[in-house]
Specification:
By secondary structure, the chain is mainly α. Helix content is about 75%, strand content about 5%. It contains six helices and two strands; from the N terminus they run αβααβααα. The protein has a two-stranded antiparallel ribbon with strand order 1-2. The longest helix has 26 residues. The radius of gyration is 24 Å and the shape is flat.
Length: about 170
């Protein structure tokens, strides 16, 4: 186990050294406008499958989300138009510096949480996901003390057992 953690640590160090000084300048307003416009189109496209309506309702479950997505898309078009005009006039765009190392770290945390969810969902065992989550975060944060692993795993299983068997909560 200790050898595995050391290999993972050295892999994190190699990746950190490569990405430490890598930064990207992104036109944040333009990218946000395009992404949220696509999001609005996506929501409007899937809404008929998700929200059923009857013909006799004047105001139905799709009315408010449709108006909200319409407003979102209108504002996105305005934002994209403003940025395109700035590009045509050769004016500088609002840019944000994105540090790749920070983004990769956030992506790793997201992946740990996503895999935890998938384990819980597809195995039907919340405790399996909790154990994975504990181990994933201890390894990610480079915990070297075996006692921390033992304590965290015992507590995760004990808390799950208390909720499952004493409080009768089914996760």
């Amino acid at each position: 186990m200790k050898d595995l953690i050391e290999r993972i640590d050295s892999g994190f160090d190699r990746i950190s050294l490569r990405l430490e000084d890598k930064e990207i300048q992104a036109p944040v307003d333009l990218i946000a406008g395009i992404l949220f416009l696509l999001f609005g189109v996506f929501i409007l496209a899937i809404m008929p499958e998700q929200v059923t309506v009857s013909e006799k309702d004047v105001v139905n479950g799709r009315a408010f989300p449709t108006m909200l997505m319409g407003l979102l898309m209108f504002c996105c078009v305005l934002l994209i138009g403003k940025e395109v005009i700035r590009i045509i006039r050769k004016q500088p765009l609002t840019r944000k510096t994105i540090n790749l190392l920070v983004e990769v770290k956030a992506l790793v945390i997201f992946c740990i949480l996503l895999v935890t969810f998938l384990i819980c969902k597809y195995t039907g065992q919340f405790v399996a996901g909790a154990v994975f989550c504990c181990l994933g975060f201890l390894i990610y944060f480079r915990c070297k003390k075996p006692a921390y692993y033992a304590i965290t795993l015992v507590l995760a299983v004990a808390i799950w057992a208390a909720f499952r068997y004493l409080l009768k909560v089914n996760f």
